[in-house]
């Protein structure tokens, strides 16, 4: 069960919001779909969901055109949260579950399971407007997964949540993946993406600028991070050849170096100058890669 986008383009008048996008969302994985503000993520999600028509290109599910009349295999958590404030949580979820073709008893059974899991059992009979923002988000998450979709699209699922609730939702996302759901997930928080996604795509100006397996993306980026903690001034390192980035910290510095071989020159340069507590070479973070490849927004 894979979702495949082939040369998908979306134009709004003369403006191209998504430009010849070709990606494949692997089965039963969490796929990170990233990009600066305005890069075209939500527009792509809306095309996958059939809410917007693509200007050209093709979207298929399991090698067949997506059949939106039977779209109950898709779940969607939109970036703009939208529940009916005056409805009770149970009525809200029953209503949405019925739209997905579920029986009322099955909906209630699933809902109780989720409310318990998210530690909000007491909200079953509460009106949505009585809930905090974070708890409303849990309810909206439940509404996106109540029908056990095979493909789940999550637009910024953790925004506005406290760390405890982020962990709770993250674990739910991982469990859904392990139970067989393919998940497409957008976030501006790179550490969440690093933790959850094996494959990802970074969009810039409607085009994918980085695409593939996270491990391979990091390896092929070339540049590495070098962390040095020492009891002497390390500022001189920023002028050494091969050093392309420098960040000062109270306990030392983080260098971005052109390739891992350069670390040996740096080691030679600091030896004998004083006490070195840490000298550690690391793969670039996804944040480093994102900033270099997509560090600008794209608005009309
Ligand atoms: N209905 C529309 N009409 C005209 N332009 C639009 C429309 N929807 C989106 N756009 C434009 O398309 C571009 C991509 O928008 P989109 O919402 O897909 O970005 P995004 O990557 O989801 O951004 P963000 O991270 O801020 O949510 C933006 O420049 C936006 O202004």
Automatic annotation (TrEMBL):
SUPFAM superfamilies: P-loop containing nucleoside triphosphate hydrolases. The keyword Cell cycle does not apply. It holds the Pfam family DrrA1-3_C. Keywords: ATP-binding, Nucleotide-binding, Transport. It comes from the Bacteria. InterPro entries: AAA+_ATPase (IPR003593), ABC_transporter-like_ATP-bd (IPR003439), ABC_transporter-like_CS (IPR017871), ABC_transporter_ATP-binding (IPR050763), DrrA1/2-like_C (IPR025302), P-loop_NTPase (IPR027417). GO terms for molecular function: ATP binding; ATP hydrolysis activity. Residues 3-230 form the ABC transporter domain. The keyword Transport applies. Belongs to the ABC transporter superfamily. PANTHER family: ABC TRANSPORTER ATP-BINDING PROTEIN (PTHR42711), ABC TRANSPORTER ATP-BINDING PROTEIN NATA (PTHR42711:SF5). This is ABC transporter ATP-binding protein. It comes from Aquibacillus koreensis.
